[in-house]
Known about the structure:
Elements: E1 3-8, E2 13-17, E3 40-46
Antiparallel strand pairs: 1-2, 1-3
Amino acid sequence: MHKVAIHYGNGDVQEIETRNDIPAGGESRLINLPGNRRVIRKVVFWYDTKNYAGQKATVELWGRH
């Protein structure tokens, strides 16, 4: 995983550099977003799938407020 971009309802975009190798079945670190109540419109992930079978990675996004 290279980076994550969070797009907010007010038009702001926050890019977070992750630069992590996440093994199959693993997870990234917790990413705490600063700020008060904001609407998240979308989250964009930049990553490479590293395997020899040509399969795509599955990415899950979890959140709480």
